[in-house]
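user:
I keep going back and forth on a fold encoding question. Separate attempts, laid side by side, tell us more than any discussion would. Would you put together a sequence-and-structure record for a protein of your own picking? Write it directly below this note and I will take it from there.

assistant:
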Amino acid sequence: MSIPKRAFDLITKWEGFKENAYLCPAGVWTIGFGTTKYSNGVKVKSGDKISKEKALKELECYLLNNCDFMKEIKLNDNQLSAILSLQYNIGKTNWIKSTLRKKILININDKEEIQTEWLRWSRAGGKVLNGLLMRRNEECSVFFE
């Protein structure tokens, strides 16, 4: 299976690249393009460094290992890209439990319901973050292209 280029474009655009580990707004050590746990299972920690090339490999590995939802419903490349971007940002467990996932499975064409649920994922630490809101709007637009 291959991951659409658009998924990489969305994720790398919104995550940005950081060579040195940092604490994200949720207080989790993060590196590269939003990696919190390396493909070998080790969590990112203070003092870690990564090259852009290695960060892209970590992102690819994560995406390939976390797109099993594709078995649930047939998705076009834009839908897959948008969902991968969202899932990468909110985490697989949150995606699996989400009302958004259920709404997509029930009626993938219900733009109003899906958009409403999608935009609910614009908070961190209980507050709406402008960057997350812009990301969610772009993901949702891509989903319905």
